[in-house]
Design a protein that fits this description.
The complex is a heterodimer of chains A (323) and B (263).
Chain A (H helix, E strand, L loop, with lengths): L1 E12 L2 E12 L3 E5 L6 H8 L7 E6 L2 E2 L4 H7 E4 L11 H11 L4 H14 L15 H13 L5 E5 L7 H18 L2 E6 L2 H4 L4 E6 L2 E6 L1 H7 L3 E6 L3 H12 L4 E3 L2 E6 L2 H11 L6 E5 L3 H9 L8 H15 L1
Chain B lengths: L1 H22 L1 H23 L11 H30 L2 H6 L5 H24 L13 H26 L3 H17 L12 H8 L2 H13 L6 H7 L4 H26 L1
The chains are: A alpha/beta (323), B mainly alpha (263).
Bound molecules: adenosine-5'-triphosphate and magnesium ion.
C-alpha cells in the first residue's frame, strides 16, 4: 500500500526552483530517505507533503488524501519532527504531549495510555515532569519524536532528526527509529545529509538542486557505482588522471589532489595497474563503495564540499543557540 | 462536532498561554509592581500641584481607573507578543500543522490574553479600599465586564499587529510606539474634556480612552458627585460599551483574516 504518492512535484520560490519535477511513492512500513546537500530541497518537500507550503505544480497524496483539498485529513495522518526545534521549552515534557494530543483530538483515555507508551519508547518517562528547558538537545529530539507519535500517525516525517547531535546521541536516536519500524511497522519519511544514516533507509532518493539523481535501495545504489573504489595519491595527479584515461579508458575523479577510480573488480585490477603505470604513486587503497561514492558518481561532487562545511557549522551553531 | 473540536483546540491554546503566564513569576510581579509605581509616583507627585477642589476627587482616586486600564493594556499586548515568539522559536509550526482551524488558534490566543489581563486588572481592583475608594458590590459585574472588553479589544489589536509584523524587533518597536500615546491620550492622567481638537480626535479612536472613561464612572460613582464626574467624563457608560464591542468585533475579524493569510 502506498502511504505517500507524489507526482511531478514542482516548487518555485520567485525564480528559484527548489523542487524540480520529482515523483515517487512510499510504501507502508518502510524507512524512506531523502539524501542531499544543503539547499537540495529536502525541507521544502517535507513542508509541501505536510501541507505547510503549497506546491507550484504537481499532485501529492498522503495516506490517500490530497494535500491541497483534504488538508485536515492529511494533517491528522502525519507526525512531524521539524528540522528546527519546535517544543515549548517552558512547559514540561508531559505538557507538550498533552497540548499536542488536544490539538489532534486524541480521546483522554487513549492519551493516558499512549503517553506512557511513547515516553517509555524514547526513555523519557522518568523525566516527564521536567521543564523542557532543562533537557539536552538529544532529549528534546526524542521528545519531539514521542510527540509526533501520540496521535498514531500513518507516517512519521523526520527532517534531519540528528542534526546538531553528537555521534553517540545520533546512534542512540537511530535505535529508537529502528525500534519504531520493527515494533510498530511505522512508515518513516526522513531527510538527512549524513551518508551513514542514509544506510538505514530501505529506499533512498538522492536529491540535488531539487532533482532526483538516484532512487533505489542503498545496496543497489552502491552496486551501480560499478564495483570497487581505488584511491590513489600522487605528486602528479593530473598526469595520473591522463594516464588512467589513455591506458585503461578509466574516467578518474580528482578530490583535493587525490585520484578516485571506480572499477569493476579492484582486486584483480590493482596488480595489472602497477605493472604498467608510469606516473609515481605514493599511496593506494581499495575499498567497497559507500554512499559518498554514489553521490560523487551521480553528481561529480562530494556531498559536503569545502564550501558546505562552514555553512554547516553555522547551521548547527544556530540550531544549538536556539535550543 | 466541528464546533466542539474548534473549542477543544482553542481551549488547549488558551491553557498553554495560561500555564506560561503562571510559570513566569517575574512577569507576574513586574506587571503588578509597574502600575503600583505609577500610582505612587504620579499620585503623590501630582497630588500637591492639583487642587483637590477641581473634581471633588483625590488625584490618586482619579488616576486609579486609568492605571487599571493601563495594566490591562500592557498585559494584553504582551500576551499577544507570544505569537511572534512562537514563530521565532518554531512552536507556531507545531500549531499550524495540527488538524485545527486557523480561527481556533486566533480565538485561543486572544482568550488567553483576555484571561490573564482580566485577572491582572481584578487583582489591582482589590487595592481600592486602600485608596479609600468605596466600592459597591453591585458594581463588580460592570467593572469586570469592562475589564474583559478592554482586554478583548486590545488583545485583538495586539494579535492583528503580530500577524502583520515580520520580525520580533519590529513588533516590539510598534508596541512601544503604540503603548505610550495610547496611554497618555486615554484620560488616565488628565480629563479629555478640555483638550485641543487633535487630541480629542486621537482619543476618539483610542479604545483605551473608552475603557478608562467607563471604568472611572463606575468605580468612582460613590466617591464623587454626579456633577463632578460628568465634568471629567466623555460618554455615557453604554456608549463606551458599544464602542468597545464594535471595535473588538471588527479588529478580531481583521486579526483572524491577517493570521489566516499570513499562515
Ligand atoms: N521561504 C523561502 N523563500 C525563498 N527561498 C527558499 C525558501 N525556503 C527555501 N528556499 C530555497 O530553496 C532551496 C531548498 O531549500 P530547502 O530548505 O528545501 O533545502 P534542504 O534540502 O532542506 O537543505 P538543508 O540541508 O540545508 O536543510 C534553497 O536554495 C533555499 O535557499
Ligand atoms: Mg532542510
Amino acid at each position: 500500500m502506498e502511504v505517500i504518492k507524489v507526482k511531478n512535484l514542482v516548487k518555485k520560490y520567485n525564480g528559484l526552483t527548489a523542487v524540480d519535477h520529482i515523483s515517487f511513492s512510499v510504501e507502508k512500513g518502510e524507512i524512506f530517505g531523502f539524501l542531499g546537500p544543503n539547499g537540495a530541497g529536502k525541507t521544502t518537500t517535507i513542508n509541501i507533503l505536510s501541507t505547510l507550503l503549497a506546491p507550484t505544480e504537481g499532485e501529492v497524496y498522503v495516506n490517500g488524501f490530497n494535500i491541497l483539498t483534504q488538508k485536515d485529513r492529511v494533517r491528522k495522518s502525519i507526525g512531524l519532527v521539524f528540522q528546527d526545534p519546535s517544543l515549548d521549552d517552558r512547559l514540561t515534557a508531559e505538557e507538550n504531549l498533552y497540548f499536542h494530543a488536544k490539538l489532534y483530538h486524541v480521546p483522554h483515555d487513549d492519551y493516558q495510555k499512549r503517553k506512557e507508551e511513547v515516553l517509555r519508547l524514547v526513555e523519557l518517562w522518568e523525566r516527564r515532569k521536567d521543564i523542557v528547558k532543562t533537557f539536552s538537545g538529544g532529549m528534546k529530539r526524542r521528545l519531539e519524536i514521542a510527540r509526533g507519535l501520540i496521535h498514531h500517525p500513518a507516517v512519521l516525517f523526520l527532517d534531519e532528526p540528528t542534526l546538531g547531535l553528537d555521534p553517540q546521541t545520533r546512534s542512540h536516536l537511530w535505535e529508537y527509529i529502528l525500534k519504531l519500524k520493527a515494533e510498530k511497522q511505522m512508515t518513516i519519511f526522513m531527510t538527512t545529509h549524513y551518508m551513514n544514516e542514509a544506510e538505514y533507509c530501505d529506499r533512498l532518493i538522492i536529491i540535488d538542486y531539487g532533482k532526483i539523481v538516484g532512487f533505489d535501495t542503498p545496496a543497489n545504489l552502491k552496486k551501480a557505482v560499478g564495483g570497487d573504489i581505488i584511491i590513489l595519491e600522487s605528486p602528479q595527479p593530473q598526469q595520473l588522471k591522463q594516464e588512467l584515461a589513455q591506458k585503461y579508458a578509466l574516467e578518474a575523479k580528482e578530490e583535493n589532489g587525490t585520484i578516485i577510480v571506480e572499477i569493476g573488480n579492484g582486486k584483480t585490477f590493482l596488480p595489472r595497474l602497477f605493472e604498467e603505470l608510469q606516473t609515481r604513486v605514493t599511496s593506494v587503497s581499495l575499498r567497497e563503495p559507500t554512499l559518498d561514492d554514489v553521490f560523487l558518481h551521480l553528481t561529480g561532487r562530494k556531498i559536503r564540499d569545502e564550501e558546505a562545511t562552514p555553512l554547516d557549522w553555522m547551521r548547527q551553531h544556530h540550531f544549538r543557540r536556539r535550543r | 462536532m466541528e464546533f466542539r473540536k474548534t473549542l477543544e483546540a482553542a481551549g488547549a491554546i488558551w491553557q498553554r498561554e495560561f500555564i506560561r503566564y503562571w510559570r513566569d513569576k517575574t512577569r507576574i510581579i513586574s506587571t503588578i509592581v509597574q502600575p503600583l509605581m505609577f500610582l505612587i509616583i504620579f499620585g503623590t507627585g501630582l497630588k500637591s500641584t492639583l487642587a483637590r477642589g477641581n473634581f471633588g476627587l483625590d488625584f490618586v482616586q482619579f488616576m486609579f481607573p486609568g492605571i487599571i486600564a493601563m495594566s490591562i493594556m500592557s498585559v494584553s499586548f504582551f500576551s499577544t507578543i507570544s505569537t511572534v515568539w512562537d514563530r521565532e522559536f518554531g512552536f507556531l509550526k507545531e500549531i499550524l500543522v495540527a488538524p485545527i482551524s486557523r480561527v481556533s488558534i486566533t480565538v485561543g490566543k486572544i482568550l488567553g490574553a483576555v484571561t490573564i489581563a482580566s485577572i491582572q486588572g481584578f487583582l489591582l481592583l482589590l487595592l481600592a479600599p486602600i485608596l479609600k475608594i468605596r466600592l459597591h458590590p453591585l458594581s463588580f459585574p460592570y467593572l469586570i465586564s469592562f475589564m474583559i472588553l478592554v482586554a478583548f479589544s486590545l488583545a485583538s489589536l495586539g494579535l492583528l499587529i503580530a500577524s502583520l509584523m515580520k520580525t520580533t524587533e519590529s513588533f516590539g518597536l510598534m508596541m512601544q510606539l503604540l503603548i505610550f500615546p495610547m496611554f497618555f491620550i486615554s484620560g488616565a492622567f488628565f480629563p479629555l474634556t478640555n483638550v485641543p481638537w487633535w487630541m480629542k480626535w486621537l482619543a476618539a479612536i483610542n479604545p483605551l480612552s473608552y475603557g478608562v472613561d467607563a471604568l472611572r464612572q463606575i468605580l468612582l460613582q460613590r466617591q464623587a458627585t454626579g456633577k463632578a464626574l460628568s465634568l471629567v467624563s466623555l460618554h455615557p457608560v453604554a456608549i463606551n460599551a458599544l464602542f468597545l464591542l464594535v471595535f473588538s468585533v471588527i479588529i478580531v475579524m481583521l486579526a483572524a483574516l491577517a493570521f489566516n493569510k499570513k499562515n
